[in-house]
Queue: 4 jobs
Job 1
Amino acid sequence: MPEEFVQVLVGESMKAEARVWRGTLRGLLDAELPVALDRITASTLLIWGDQDAFVTDDQKVLLDGIPDARQVVYVGGGHGPHLAEPDRVVPDIVDFLTLVASKNA
């Protein structure tokens, strides 16, 4: 990921007050996502880097819990493969959207 992009991302994140980040993290930790996952009706693409230090076991929960979920795993990828390796991720998103569009046509 280009250093200048990281700096912009960090700079924008710093604009939010600490209470916003605390609330966000509290909400993520308190969320009972598996309870609601089966109510997701949209086709879902899970994009995951296998070196992600933040989201690990959650991927299996999401994949098993969302009725029409597919997963693409980026070997060597971290938490934000869409940011770090857009050239790898964009074709997978386009393929997924093409598949969904053809199913719904």
Note: The two ends are 37 Å apart (CA to CA).
Job 2
Amino acid sequence: MRSRIVLETDGFVALPTIGQLFSGSMLILPRRHTERFSDLSRFEIGRFDSFARRLFDGVGSDHVLFEHGARCVSRGGCGIYHAHVHCIPVPSELLLNDMLPFGRQAHDSLSDAWKANRNTDEYIVARDSAGRVASIDEDVIRLHGYGSQHMRRVLVSHFSLPKPWDWRDYEEPERDLIAAVAARTPSHVF
């Protein structure tokens, strides 16, 4: 299989998610190693916004974004300790009430949410299909039992998907992942 990268800049790469809940589900990763997006500079986060817009330009579908940011010392998240934001096209609305039903803090932007979570070891930041942003911190994660891959569990439940929520349960090669790569022409944006 050729490279899974479908969009790249000097700062970020996008590739289809292993465990495609919806065709075209993508991950955005910074090229520079950091464990969480909240550890990126304001400049890097600004470049993320334009990169994400470019990734979903012309897709014609609502989409949600989320990150379960965790430092490896927290032992939270999905066990992958390189920052990554999930960008998932959804067939109908998915709102914050469903994504983060308890203890969420509203924010004006993803940048504001990441800034608010700089000093916590673990958080979840989400943007719903209406464009609203919220986050929860490690205290809320523990109090309400928001476990690993919480947002993938929400997507499977909310949309009654006949697929496993755990990306590790998908067989290789994954047909939807191969289709997502084939549907996108790799492009370089600088």
Note: Confidence is low (pLDDT under 50) at residues 74-78.
Job 3
Amino acid sequence: MFGLITDSAKNFTDHFLQKNEDIIEVELKDVFTRFTNDVLTSTSFGLAVDSFKNPNNLFLDMAERMFNFASGIGKLIKFNIMIQWPALYEFLGLPVFDVAVNDFFEKLVEDTIQMREERGIVRPDMIHLLMEAKKESVKEKTIDNGKYEDTDTKNLQLTNKDIAAQAFFFYLAGFDAVATVLCFFCYEIVVNQEIQDRLRAEVEESFDNCGGAVTYDTINELKYFDMVLQETVRKWPPLFAMDRVCTKSFTIEPKVPDEQPVYLEKGTTFWLPIYALHHDPTYFPDPDIFDPERFNPENKLNIKAGTYLAFGSGPRRCIGYRLAFVEIKTILFHLLYYFEIVKTQKSQIPIKIKPTSPNLCSRDGFWFAFKKIRR
């Protein structure tokens, strides 16, 4: 899939390089959303969609409908009912998404599978992987004492509807989260110019070493990039919190005299406060300071297990976080090689968070500019 991501990253930078202006003001959430849309339609559904040449494409329209389901107080209440009391939500017959959204993606996948089977088309994307998985048998895995154990082998028996659901979730999970992380990453390297300069030096050295032929290994070797990215999702995690289910009964013993023990019964759903953990000075000193050195090889070893949860932890860790990191680093590699990211009169520094959003986002947008680097 790396080639598909690179194609979208090059298309992104080419779009702005072709403009006559040397300084191009942009709203980052808008342009990065278009980028993630192009990547995900390509890697999830096997379709080439240029959201810069065609800004009103159907995928962006469907994505807007998807993410509007949890905006506003009323919709947030509905969303919380769905998470906390799924049986009640189902009983009330409340749809998770617009029916038109579900129908669109299901028909898209049905048509894509049919065309590929009839014409023998093979493409390195999610649809192909799921079509291959449909043919295979796999070992079921259970978790016992925190370890995976193989049980029976069985056929997955995936239907086309199952494949559509998985591709849809892949698209949903990566669409807003990646664009949001990109926005906060850029915000921090504008505020901290020395970090942007060091990143660009790493990019330029890497670009020269590979002769401009950027590969998956090129991206993985960007060590300082990794540090800045991990600090970005530490300070600005994609989710405020995440829910988990106890797999066995457990008692949280009091640590100080005024506390009471908390008993969690097996099957209990509870919330992990990611943002609170990431901003607790007990675990991350001076948590409001953006400091990538927290994640250098030496300091990273001192981070207490279970306190850094940007993408979860353990067997339930976000399955797509590695792909998300590659996607983020690839677009920023190309962007920082050709442009400096600078503030404008519309830039909001310090940033103000939108209070009614289910995840972190700017109240007034991420207004910055791409300044062309002349070489």
Note: DSSP finds 14 helices and nine strands in the chain.
Job 4
Amino acid sequence: AMGVVIPVSNNPATLYVLKNKTPLALSDAQNDFLLAPIHDIMRQRGVISLLIIPLMVQGEVIGTIGVDSLEPREFTPQEIELAVSAAAAAAQMLEKAHAEEELSQSEKKFRQLFDSAPICIFRAGASGQIFDANASMLELLGLSSLEEACHSDLSNPIFDPEEAGRLWRLALEGTVTDFVTRFHRGNGECIDVSLRANISRDRAGNPEFLEGTVAKISNQPGRQAGP
């Protein structure tokens, strides 16, 4: 019953539904021995007959739904079938909500790991336009926020479009390692870097974006961008 906590332990009716994964119809809820632990609850609520439906997710019972009747009755097979269908729909909604919550938590954990990673990580389109970068990457580029990286225009790109196109073509064939190129920092300084990258694809296998890591090549002093 909605708004009422029905105990599971030592409750034969609920245990029956959990064990057998089938509905249980009780015509005399106030006296049936299967509901002995909750007879008082049934009487207080005026419930005469009760139908208990299991909530099933991937073949397992995650809970139950009770259909109360304030008059004595026998639940028909059609009514039980309808209640089972309603419970199945409710279980699907619960499963979807649970999956979305798990996905949200996973995304948060991934983002925390992404942002706190000591290595420089980026994601970019085929033209080299960076749309995601962690804190280490932003520091390497001399930028204070991801928005600065995302809004770099084509007249002053972080990653030269021709070089990005070459990297994209190589990555279409597999993971690229030790790809040496030059990045433009926010202050106009040029730095030589080595990239490891691959292409992330959608479920259909279509290429979506580049993702990879960057390491600044040591012993290479920064140079001002020139013509």
Note: Confidence is low (pLDDT under 50) at residues 221-227.
